[in-house]
Amino acid sequence: MFNLRLIARMDIKGPHLIKGVHLEGLRKIGDPQEYAQKYYRAGADELLYMDVVASLYGRNNLTDIVRRTAENVFIPLTVGGGIRCIEDVDLLLRSGADKVAVNTAAHARPELLSEIANRFGSQCLVLSIEAKRDDKGSWEAYTDNGREHTGRDAVAWAKQGAKLGIGEILVTSVDQEGTRKGFDIELVRQITQAVAIPVIASGGMGSMEHLYKVVEQGGADAVAMADILHYGRLALPNIRAASRQHGLPVREVT
Question: CA distances (Å), 2 to each of 102, 131, 163, 215, in order?
Fold first, then answer.
């Protein structure tokens, strides 16, 4: 049986940990290093760093943050934002990242996913999908923090990514992100049913009930949490304990 992964998501702008709603209206939270240490000590299974302004500069600016984090944090670290080529991936992995999350560049050139998977292995490649509901009852994949249309159906894009060799999918509901109203269960469910690789659900967790639903009804293999952790609404040890009590297969932390 799989272990449900509890992932601390940290969106980064410049040197700051930030948080928004619908990936907009960003507010400074604090020093990402301090929060990374906090979540590591609290028993997070993984950390996820996303450079939210990378598309403005055409490159990922997290190299120094990743390097410093990797010196003291010994759980898997995924880094996304502004990854455009093999050289970007190589730099981040050498800086201490375990996995990279790719979004914009894959839409421009889908074969980049296969190139990364062939060079570094599928296990280090995450396809990041920022999805919004459309007026047809489906979801469109977006880039640039949910601002730029791609014209691609999010579920079909997930399937294409799986065929190109990605190791897992990070699906963020832009509609739910930062609202504390729960995950988009149907979006997650359709993607988990469409692919045979792990799916990380992100966007909207405001209670334990939301976590239970996205795992049991949506089929998520992992849950990425931001607002609920950053603002201290729930702590990771309590989330882990409640998940175990509910019967979910979470890792034991000693």
Answer: 24, 26, 22, 12
Provide the residue ranges of all domains of the chain, joining segments of one domain with +. Answer: 5-246
Start-to-end Cα distance in the chain: 20
Q: Which residues are catalytic?
A: 11, 130
User: What is the per-residue pLDDT for 24?
Assistant: 60
Instruction: Match domain 5-246 to its CATH number in 2.60.40.1220, 3.20.20.70, 3.40.980.20, 2.60.40.1080.
Output: 3.20.20.70
Using CA atoms, how far apart are residues 93 and 120, in angstroms rounded to an integer? 9
The band of 22, judged by pLDDT with boundaries at 50, 70 and 90, is low
Q: Length of the chain in residues, anyone?
A: 254
Output the pTM of the full model.
0.95
